[in-house]
Amino acid sequence: MRVICNYFKKAVNLTLCLQSELDKINSSVKLINSYNNVKINTEFYAFAENKDRFAHVSTSLTSNEYFLQIEDKELVTATLTTNKLNEIAEIIDFWLKESSSILSIQDKVEIDSFYYDLLVLTEKQILEKRWFNLIERIENKEIEFSFELIKEIKTHFWKLYPFFSHDFLWFSNIIGVKNHNFYTPIISSFNGNFEIRNEVYGKNVLFSSSVMNEIIQKLDELVKFNNEISKNPLK
What is the DSSP letter of 101? Predict the structure, then answer.
């Protein structure tokens, strides 16, 4: 079957068209037809990977533009929307070389702000920025959580990276990434009552109190991180 690489034509296959562009620049990148044992719809999607680095391209039948997202260690690194498939091929070829830095092509893509922080800020600076953002959101009622409790938790656990999921607070000792080998309790704060449990929406409440100091003491018992600052996943 002859593949026409034009999205205003009916016969098209993004994976084959992008592979053709990669071959033109003598790239060693080979696009894959399945990911995590799931077959890819190659007409509208294209994927490539090299160890911890990943590239994903998509489009639609009614669009003449392509959307590229590249990742590093499961973190969104940068994105690009363009109608030039050869430009996407060049970026993928560059990115999947392990030693390549995204900063070298920052004029060609939109670097994710969090990923950029991982590259240019210290661990302490990133954590300070994260805690400040969450406390501000709680103060503005964007997250339902005790403003006084979050400030007290920050005082004791600022070296950990905080996450919120459906108004439940939990931690990681890796910045921006859940560490499955690190135990973290889940903390909630509704109607003046504070609860600690093993999982979000879990019925097994480990501890409950309306006294803030009691919650902090219990967290001190449960959270084991040796007072070490959370690690940058890129280092």
Answer: -
Q: Considering the entire predicted model, what is its pTM? A: 0.86
CA torsion sign, 222 to 224 to 229 to 232?
negative
What token pair was written down for 3?
């593949």
Contact 95, 50 (CB under 8 A): no
CA distances from 36 to 13, 40, 66, 116 (A): 21, 10, 23, 28
H or E stretch covering 208: strand 205-209
Asked if residues 35 and 54 have their Cβ atoms less than 8 Å apart, the reply is no
Q: How high is the pLDDT of residue 61? A: 79
Evaluate if residue 11 carries a pLDDT over 70: no
> Taking Cα atoms as reference points, which of 183, 181, 155 lies closest to residue 170?
183
Residue 9: helix, strand or coil by DSSP? coil
In this prediction, residue 202 carries a pLDDT of 63
Strand 53-58 with 45-50, pairing: antiparallel
9 has pLDDT over 90: no
- From the DSSP assignment, how many helices (H) and strands (E) are in the chain? 6, 12
CB neighbour burial string for 26-49, b if at least 16 within 10 angstroms, e if fewer: ebebebeeeeeeeebebbbbbbbe
- CA 222 – CA 235 distance, rounded (Å): 27
Closest CA to 158 of 219, 97, 77: 219
Q: What is the pLDDT of residues 108-159, one digit of tens each?
A: 999 999 999 999 999 999 999 999 999 999 999 999 999 999 999 999 999 9
Q: Which residue has the higher pLDDT, 57 or 203?
A: 57
